[in-house]
Amino acid sequence: MDIRPTTEQDHELFVETMHAAFGLFPDPPGEDGTGVWWSAFEPERGLLARDADGRPVGTAGAYTFELTLPGGRIVPVSGVTAVGVLPSHRRRGVLTAMMRRQLADLRARGEVLSVLLASEALIYRRFGYGPATYTRALTVPRLRAALTPPRGGAAEPAGTVELLHRDRAVELLEQVYDRYRRTRPGSVSRPHRWWARGAGQPPIAPKPRYVALHRDADGVPDGYASYAIEDKRSLVVDETVAATDAAHTALVRYLLGHDLVQEVVFRHVPPDSPLPWQLADFGAAQPGKHTDWLWARVLDVPGALTARGWSTDGTLVLDVDDPFLGEHHRHLLTVRDGRAECTPTDLAPDLSLDISDLGSILLGGTTPSTLARAGHLHPHHPEAPARADALFRPDREPHCLHWF
């Protein structure tokens, strides 16, 4: 078996092999090759595994993204995607070889993190990835959708909501999303190539959607909600993107006030969403699927820890094991005035942890004390988990909307 990088000439072979690995048949793209979820592939970043006879048996790809970290810091990351092995060649080490080669390539790019959406948790944790953001669905029956008025009878913030068709709003959607993702830890960028080629899921994909666009008092777009009515009874919201709380509230009011539907389904809600608290009937927001979303893989421990912002001063000695890459290092993390230093040390550790667990706590979506209680982290003294919780606490709960 050999693994080689792909080029533009391999695009059709890569797509065909990837679909076969998942047991899928590709939808036909548009005449210009757009409008399908893989149309934003970056051919020069793919890997193709071939057997001894030169036949393709596995694929792995990556997108070029930016990731927002706590403190508003932004770093380049690789969005790993299209990882699959033909059913006829599984359990022969093909996947392990591809992942090892890919991690080496990502490190060579100088990136401190890579991210992915895990189809199966058991697969990617062994390669050093850990769940870092979470998302959930909420359903609100229209008969219980009244919102609480502002406290003290205060006036609603000035602003407007206008109704647009998705096809006429792509440029505005791109602008608003880019503003939003820079404010939310865990968010990844949506490069222009995605919007131009209609890749991914709605509202990027060119499927029929209505868009509620919010403008602030100065007429500047600062939020949107993409939605469609399904089965003549459910208004299903793909995503609600808002750069401000005022925009979010206005969009929620618009969606919950829509006539001729029995319920409003919010597919993608962050764990810290204020929506349940905004309802007059607190129990009206019926929880749906709660799931992991973005998984993170630390490629450079000091680089990742010093890249994010911090809201609390302190020190912590981390003993980090990376079994997949055969590495083990101990680091002294020192945080002062929102910035960190991370240096090798021989000091006694406060916490021992796997590289996948470091990926889970890095963005603040999972607390170290939770992982300690679960037996993932080993604290070397009783106060270590609480100290780590205070240190890694984010300025805002991480959340990722982007599907790739």
Automatic annotation (TrEMBL):
Annotated positions binding acetyl-CoA = V83, G84, V85, R91, R92, G93, V94, L95, T96, S119, E120
Report the InterPro entries cross-referenced here.
Acetyltransf_17 (IPR041380), Acetyltransferase_Eis (IPR051554), Acyl_CoA_acyltransferase (IPR016181), Eis_dom (IPR025559), GNAT_dom (IPR000182), NAcTrfase_Eis (IPR022902), SCP2_sterol-bd_dom_sf (IPR036527)
Q: Active site annotated at which positions?
A: Y124, F404
Arranged from A to Z, the UniProt key words for this protein are: Acyltransferase, Transferase
Q: Where is the N-acetyltransferase domain?
A: 1-150
Q: How does it assemble?
A: Homohexamer; trimer of dimers.
Family recorded in the similarity comment: Belongs to the acetyltransferase Eis family.
The name of this protein is GNAT family N-acetyltransferase
Q: Tell me the classification of the organism that encodes this protein.
A: Bacteria, Bacillati, Actinomycetota, Actinomycetes, Kitasatosporales
